[in-house]
Structure formats: structure tokens, C-alpha cells
Amino acid sequence: MARSATTRQVHILEIVREQGFASIEQLAARFEVTQQTIRRLVNALCDQGLLRRVHGGVSLPVQNQNLAYSSRHRLNAEAKRRIAHATAKLIPDGTSLMIGLGTTPEYVAQALSRRRDLRVITNSLNVAAAFSHNPDVEITIAGGTLRPLDRDIIGEAAVHFFSGFRADFGIFGVGGVDADGSLLDFHVDEVKARQSIAANSRTSVLVADITKFGRNATVRGGHLDECHHLVIDDRLPAAFELSAQRYSGQIHTAGDARADFELLGEI
């Protein structure tokens, strides 16, 4: 069976992240397709900000800021939906949740939006909006500085806000994950808020599609060691083989049998 374009794009990202550069000719030979097909696939990745066009091929982008929220929301949407569906199976009714900013946590909120007797604590207006039509959900929103384009709240007030609660689950995304397991984001305030969620939750859940693994971001804070669960949409890239082995008991791949979270009784 021929690989889907999405699967090919994931492997293209792996190759470029391992080598730093890949030529169109090399990729076409690697996947046994035409150069025109490869150009179409890498152009889509470049348009999403995941790769950068250079003469003769593609390389990693130079990133010091994230993509616009609307672009990120559309990016890998199906993968994020599967991650959200799998994560929702981890969360029973009648629990308290801290949910962080970002598009994948918003997808999780949407997957949980019809649940009963939840208390949601968040610094994301998108998350709050996802629950706002359900009277069985109590929503508490952080104060602080609003980022209008992202529709989230950051700053020291938002960081301290989370420390006033103790939630059953903390659900958060990241801008990227480094090969050593470090969690990366694009702004210090994003890192501080995410770390406050993890520190003030009994069970921390990182939700990230696999394009985040090896993705460049400039601010480091937190580590995979601190995550009780990691919900992803596919196998980790080859550069993360050691992480895949080390965290095998914590990794849940959306769509496989373990995504049903038989570990739920152990939490």
C-alpha cells in the first residue's frame, strides 16, 4: 500500500532533522516518487513553517517565534483530533482539570466539552469557550495579560493563578521537544505557565503531535521526565528512539490499543 502524503511528510521531517538538509533529488529517490511529488510535499511543509526552502532542497527553519494561532489550529488537525479523543479517555467525569494554552489542548477541551461535573482551570479563552455551553462544567479563567491573536492569558499573574489550585489533571502542549527530552516553547511566559500547571496537578499529561519532536523553539523549561503521560499521534522519530524506550510506559499513541488507557486504574 502506498504511503499517504501525511506519512511521507513525517518521514521527510525526520530526514531533514537528522541531516539538517535534504535535496529534492535525494528525497525523490528515497521515497521512489517523482521530484514533482516531493516538491508538492515539501512545499506544504514549508508553508506550515516546518521546513525552509533553500537552493536544491529544504532545511530546518530558523525560528524565534511561533506560527499564527489560526495557522497552527489547522496544522495537523486530524492528528490533534485523534490525540484529543485518546486524551479524553483518560479523564473521568467529576474531576478538576488545568488546561494550558495552545491548539492541541484546545482540541482536548473540545473532546471533553460534553462531559459532566468538571472543574476547568485555564489561561486559554479558546479552552474556556469550548466548555462554555455546558452547564455541568465550572470554568475558572486566569487574570493577566491577554494576547488577542492567540486568545490566551500570560504573565506573572497567570503563573501565580495556577498555584492557587490543586487539580487532578494538568493538560498542556509544547512548542517543541528536544532530543534530550527538554520541553521547548517560544516565550518565557508560556514556559512558566506550563510549568505551573505541571507543578500544581496530581497527574500531568503532555499532548503533542510528532512534528513537535525535534522542532526548534528557543525557550527551554521542563522535561519529559516530569510528564506522567505523553499522548502522541504516531511513533516517535528515529532521533527519539532512546526516549521511546525510556518512556514506553508513559507514551500513548492515539489509535492503538493502549490509547484506550487501560492504565487509568493505576493513576
UniProtKB/TrEMBL annotation:
GO MF, any single term: DNA binding
SMART domains the UniProt entry points to: DeoRC, HTH_DEOR
PROSITE patterns: HTH_DEOR_2 (PS51000)
InterPro entries to which the protein is assigned, alphabetical: Carb_Metab_HTH_regulators (IPR050313), DeoR-like_C (IPR014036), DeoR_HTH (IPR001034), NagB/RpiA_transferase-like (IPR037171), WH-like_DNA-bd_sf (IPR036388), WH_DNA-bd_sf (IPR036390)
Alphabetically ordered keywords of this record: DNA-binding, Repressor, Transcription, Transcription regulation
Stretches assigned to the HTH deoR-type domain: 5-60
PANTHER family: GLYCEROL-3-PHOSPHATE REGULON REPRESSOR, HTH-TYPE TRANSCRIPTIONAL REGULATOR SRLR-RELATED
Protein name as it appears in the record: DeoR/GlpR family DNA-binding transcription regulator
